[in-house]
Structures are given as structure tokens and as C-alpha cells.
Prior knowledge:
By secondary structure, the chain is α/β, with parallel strands linked by helices. About 45% of the residues lie in helices and about 10% in strands. It has two domains: about 1-70 and about 120-205 and about 295-425, 3-Layer(aba) Sandwich (Rossmann fold), CATH 3.40.50.1240; about 75-115 and about 210-290, no CATH class.
Amino acid sequence: MVRRFFAVLLLFVAAGPLFAQRTTVFEEIRADENKRAGLDGVYRMQKVALTPAPKGYEPVYIAHYGRHGSRYAYSPKIFTDPMDALRKGSAEENLTPFGGRLLDTLEARWGKMQYLIGDLTPLGWAQHQFIGKTMVASFPGVFGKGSVVDAASSPTVRSIISMASCCEAIGKAAPAATVYAHQGMTDYQATRPNYRHNPFRYKGPDQPFPYPSDDAFLEARFPAWRQMLGRMFKDVDKALEGLSPSHLVYYINVMIEGWRSVPEKDRIDFTGVMTEDELNAFWEVCNFMEYREYFKYRTACSAIVDDIVAKADARLAEGSRGADLRFGHDHCLLATLMVMDVDGMGTVAAKAEDIPLWFQNFRAPMASNIQLVFYRPKGGRKGDTLVKCLLCGEEMPVGGLTPVSGPYYRWDELRAFLKARTDLFVLR
């Protein structure tokens, strides 16, 4: 009982000075519109320089979790909620000329867009082709003769097709490897454990969100929202009757930032809806709203961490080579990063305005992925199993653990740390 009390207490305590705060985050947002797009940013298809393996070690196995690739808007509400507000404004003669033109543009495009909601785009396919090829090129020993690649996906079609793209690329680049892909209810815990239909979903302690409401945060951190909506509506208060301003502005922002993923022919011109300064400033609100949603997923998504540990241990025990790939969604990936405390993302900030110093939604752009790469001594010699963590191809620290060298940790120590982390969020 005492142990559980302190475990729950740790849910709401900052991790301390294990990591440097990302104090440049707002400068990064202003300098890089792809980061400003947050979850709608696109994967940078460029190979990253990696630290060589410690002397006498070679990679043997990869544990992976990846978000689906670039897609059209994930929900029709991204378009229909702003359109409904504009339609209401039109019926009440509450639209400015700009608001009227925007409504006409959306109405004209909605006839086609409604049938593309959630679909993977050609860019999304290309991203996972790149990721699959890069894994093989970076760690060829993992994918040699006799190696087995097992891939599982969430039930969402865009995730399944992303999995197909990555597996096809691996199969072509590593023809000696056996590649098997599947999707089913028994894969939910590894791919989309927070899915409402998941019968195996973990239960955990209450996790009250210790910050203000979305609307209060919007008012405090983005007071320009009223001026922005004033470009579309003559009377903003009348337009917002029954609506949450943070909700409406969020969907408008997602409409604007989502252009990066879709083909040129399907893009909509949103010039004038939000200025560059407003887009940059609203990132913080967007980041806050998504953090609120994903904060509670730490319990369910601890299942992904448990799955990574269990399958890695099984592979290492049998001495096989290959990879276990999991394909899902941004909310699962970001919650997993919080559970694992990758690069300080498990820190619970003392104040709402400090959240961006620790949690950044741009860590999970389209096709983002985390890979744990496992290393063993060459030639069957004895020695510790080592592991390093890659996020979107870049080496990352985990949990304030002390590495053996560079980004390499002892698996025994990392496994123990991950078990302690999931114990914070799961009632077993």
C-alpha cells in the first residue's frame, strides 16, 4: 500500500534535473514551420549520423513502434466543425466578406475531401519506404539470413498500409530475411492499447490533469484568438454561442497545417486565416491540448512498453536476429515516450506554461518512430547486452540512466527502469 502511494505520487512530480530543459523551443518553432505544425509535421527523410557500436559489439535486434505516415485529415470534424460555424454565421448574416469566401472555398472542396478522411497519402507510403530501407542500411546484421521480422498494426487502414510499405521496403532491401505482417485484436496491446474496443486495456490510478482548462489556457497564452476569428465573423461572441473557442481555433489550425501531407492537387488555400505570428503562437495552445489528451493514455500505453520488453527478452533468449515492428498512432507514440521518459518527456511540469520545455508534439510528426536497437558481443563472446534508443532516427537519452558509452545502455538496467515506469501507471 505504501509502495503504491509513492508510485502514484510520482505521477505528479517533475523528474528533476536529469535532463536539460528545452529552453529554445519557441525559437525552434519560429525557425521551423514543420515543427510548428506539430503532429501535422512530416517526417524528414534524411539519414542521421549514428554513434558507432562499442568495440566488439554488433546489432542483433530492433524493437520498433511507428506512427502511420502522412494522411488526409484524421476526422471529418476538422472541416465540418469550422464549416458549421461558418454556415451558422452565414444564416445569421454574421460573416465578414472574408468569412464568406472561406465558406465558399470549403464547401466547394468538401465534396471530394469527405471521401479522403484518414486515408494515407502517397507521401505517407514513401516515408515508410524510407524508414524500412534506412533500418536495413543502418543495421544490416539485424536483417541477414535467418532473421525474422514480425510486424503488427492497429486496425486503422492508414496504419496497415504504412506497415505494408515498411515491410515491402525491408523485404526488398533484405531478401534473406523472413517478413511477416498481421493485424488482429490480440495486437491491440502492442499497437493501439488505448483503443476503445481493446478488451485487454490496462487499468491504472487516477491521473487528474493538474492544469487549467483548454479555454483558460487559450485566453492566457493566445489572446489573439478573438482578433483571428474576427476576420471571419462580424460578432465573435455570437459566432461562438455553444462553442468552445479553443476547440474551434484548434480545428482551424489543423486544417491549415495539414497541407504538408496531401498532394498538391488536394491542397486548399488558407492564406489570411491566420498570420505567421499567430500560427507560431498558437503552437503552444495546440501542444497543451494534445498533452491534455495524451496524459491519460500513459496507463493504456504502458502495454506497448511491456510488449517491447517481453518480445526483446524472448528474442534475446533464443538468440534470434530480426525486428518486431508495431504500427499505430501519434497519441500512442507520445504516451509511450512519456512512459519511457525519453529525453525528459516523462517530466510533469510544475506550471502549464512550462509544459513545452518537456513535452513537444513535434516529436511525433507523420511516420515518426521509436527504435530500440540491441547489441551483443560478436562471435558469441560473453558480455552485457547493450541497447540504444532512436527517435525519428536520432539517438536519445532515456530516463536519466547512465550509459555505458555514448547512447548505449545496459539492457538489464534499462529493462528495470522501464518496469519501474510502467508500475507507476498500471494497477497489476
